[in-house]
Amino acid sequence: MWLKMTSIVLTAAVALAWPDKLLAQKDNLKFERISLEQGLSQNTIYCILQDRKGFMWFGTQDGLNKFDGYDFKVYKHDPQDPNSLSNNVVRTIYEDRAGTLWIGTNGGGLNKLDGEKDSFTHYRHDPNDANSLSDNYVLSICEVSRHGRRTLWIGTRYGGLNQFEMETGRFTRYQNDPNDAGSLSDNYVISIYEDSLHGGSTLWIGTYGGGLNKLILEESNRERGVFNRYQYDSTASDDLGHKQIRVIYEDRAGTLWLGTGGGLDKLDRRDGTVTHYHHDSNDPASLSASAVWSIFESRQGRDGLLWIGTGNGLNQFDRAAEKFYRYHHDPNDPNSLSDNYIRSICEDRSGMLWIGTWNGGINKLDRRRGMFTHYRNIPNDPNSLSHNNVRAIYEDARDGGNTLWIGTRGGGLNKFDRQKQAFTHYKDYPNDPNGLSHNYVWSIYEDRAGNFWISTYGDGLKRFERKKERFTHYRHDPADPNSLSRNSVTPIYEDRSGMLWIGTDVGGLNIFDREKETFKHYKHDANDSTSLSHDNIWSIFEDRSGVLWIGTDGGGLNRFDREKEVFKHYKNEPDNPQSVSNNHVFCIHEDSRSAGTLWLGTWGGGLNKFDTATEKFVHYTEKDGLPNDVIYGILEDDHGNLWLSTNKGISRFNIQTETFKNYNTHDGLQSYEFNAGAYHKSKSGEMFFGGINGFNAFYPDEVKDNAYIPPIVITAFKKFDQIAKRDIAATDEIALSYKDKYLTFEFVALDYTNPEKNQYAYIMEGFDETWIDAGTRRFVSYTNLDPGNYVFKVKGSNNDGVWNEDGVAVKITITPPPWKTWWAFTLYV
Question: Which end of the chain has less neighbouring CB within 10 Å, N or C?
Fold first, then answer.
């Protein structure tokens, strides 16, 4: 026996060096669930495949499913239709080199699908025919092509291994013979794999009770070969880790991985070593369960990621560190796995990962969604965010970005230790004079002296001593004209001279003298045009020239002259398109690359560009590409792009091209709706935006578009709303009669990232003069086309606007009526 065994055991010291939370989940992955509600026929997913056209196929306990990103087409057994699927329990799907799909079923044998006719050819066991399939329970399929001869190898539950000659329809059986040590070790064949290192001359066969078999094929590719057995022996140190070999997978480095009933085995064919990876209940870095059902190596990155599906969760295997990161179902997290029993894993050509479960349907994982890390309140988890409505975010300047401070609407103040991934809560506790005293935190600010200031919406201003964890309170006192003007405090801002400005709701603007601990007030006076335009203050900002700008809720923008103590107002003028678009100014940002340019976020008026020299405003709204005209926050990245939080996600605005790129919950955002004041950029360039379901953290340079160019398929051609042809190939030609008055084409771009955003355009050459933009519509109809020759073309894009410009085309010929043919005109002449 040439196999050698190496066992991997992580010591307790290594395990303790990694916090459980970090080991349990390496990345902030969000799984999108696809189930019966979306059209899937059944929630147990035995197998997944993407065909060469780009369609996704799923084998379930109740039918075969074909998915185009929008709709499922379900194939089931119909007793009245001899060409239907032979059995509804689909255990395996395989596409051969010619593009034909083969389906293995439980009790219905082998099926070959004719995609154009949507019909199946059946191959079943015939007890009277030794050349028929040995058993009707088909669990695995593999194609081998040698010497110009293509054969399928079929693994069955009770009948061993079958070699199927596709040209002749003849099956040759390989079964266990108790008296022959060179025969197949067990008749329950779960997995088959063609070895890439030996040019189709070697097959690996995994069995349920007989371990692993290696079959070296004879030159004829038909003669019986000898099976070399590699079996489990608990007393031997150089054998497999378990007798059940459920899956065989080869990675790009040429290493064979075996998923067994007792864990994961790595088989190095060069030196014959077997390394075992087991579940260890005391080690959070070990495999999450011993039963391994699926293995897949991601194509992303040079080495890729190895994903392991078990009976208790999904694992991401770091091969360099030999650590497993686990992902489980969380009943409180709709973005977690839908079920912990992982039966199948597949990655499509765009990099989307598809995970099939035993009872939870399909999980779709777009790892680009992980670009936006999401933090939220988790019920019964004291280390999570205290409340999901986030109103303020600030990075502590003292410890290199390890600590974030989060203000919430109802959950008080949170201190987030990013290394430990744990939140400390500061809330209003009765009878605690040094406590926070109010749970609605509007803003958080650290002045240059290191003082930490907290504003609350209802109980004034707080100075927080972080070492002593003690709050000092500044409140409105009706009897003291030098107290805070109102207890509902909004933004806090320190200008370059060290003055602390405090905004309030209805109480106007305050300057705080920190030595005397007194407040000076600026309020709106209807009889004074140079007073503050409105007493609701939403934003305070000082530009590079030292001018102080005040954004209000209803009074537009104010420019404050500190020497004269007067305010200049900029309000919306309905008849002036160069005035500010809306009087509700949420946020103010100065362009880092253009002195004198301010950007304003408004409530309902979109984004405003303000030239402080000309005092003219330029507006950008939904009609220009903004997802929503409410702008809560503005941050600028290192390339000069503006990131905007809205009521419909986050938008990236390219100042040079004046174009918007929009992101929503599908991309990993906490919600569509964000909050005013809840935005912050760290010293490292990381951005934070808070909303009604927690907050997001991301690095702008890591937010990349989907570059995958999707294949375009014409899925159906209809005449008078009746399907005449499906899955039309580019080589197809459609011949029609002049009587065919109403024609419809249906089409799809096969990118599954966010299909609802895929775009389409089409042209009927010979009828349409230019390409027609269809938006997200996936069909077009034509009526009363004249006899003649046409070419119908359609192209499409993915969710990020990357187009397949080649698209697909089909030739159409419409024959004229008999009285308009050339021979009829000849007769007339």
Answer: C
Q: What percent of the chain has pLDDT over 70?
A: 92
With the CA atoms of 768, 773, 349 and 301 taken in that order, what torsion angle do they form, in degrees rounded to the nearest 10? 130
Average pLDDT score over residue span 325-344: 94
In tens, the pLDDT along 82-133 reads 999 999 999 999 999 999 999 999 999 999 999 888 999 999 999 999 999 9
DSSP codes, 721-790:
TEEEEEEE-TT-EEEEETT--EEEEEEEE---S-GGG--EEEEEETTBSS-EEEET--EEEEESPPSEEE
Specify the DSSP element, H or E, that contains 408.
Answer: strand 403-408
How far CA 45 is from CA of 259, 359, 558, in Å, comes to 18, 8, 61
* CA atoms of 356 and 737, how far apart (whole Å): 46
Tell me the three state secondary structure of residue 701.
helix
Buried b (16+ CB within 10 A) or exposed e, 315-341: bbbeeeeebbbbbebeeeeebbbbbbb
Contacts of 140 (CB under 8 A, 6+ apart): 92, 104, 154, 155, 189, 190, 191, 192
Classified as helix, coil or strand, 804 is strand
Distance CA(535)–CA(89), nearest Å, equals 68
Dihedral pair phi/psi, residue 104, rounded to 5° = -100, 135
Both tokens of residue 313? 């969760």
As given in the structure block, the two tokens for residue 553 are 């809720």
User: What's the CA gap between 648 and 629, in Å, rounded?
Assistant: 9
- Give residue-wise pLDDT tens across range 310-321: 999 999 999 888
- Measured in degrees and rounded to the nearest 5, phi and psi for residue 196 equal -75, -20
Among the listed residues 539, 645, 644, the one whose alpha carbon sits nearest the alpha carbon of residue 587: 539
Find residue 591's DSSP bridge partners. Answer: none
For 702, the 3-state DSSP assignment is helix
What is the average pLDDT across 685-714? 96
**Kind and range of the H or E run holding 619:** strand 616-620
DSSP-derived secondary structure for 101-127: EEEEEBSS-EEEEETTTTEEEEE---T
> β-pairing, 273-277 with 4-7?
parallel
Tokens found for residue 47: 């197998």
Strand, coil or helix: what is 20? helix
Structure-block tokens of residue 826? 């000849």
pLDDT in tens, 45-70: 999 999 999 999 999 999 999 999 99
Q: Cα–Cα distance between 239 and 236 in angstroms, integer?
A: 6
Q: From CA 258, how far away is CA 39, in angstroms rounded?
A: 33
pTM over 0.70: yes
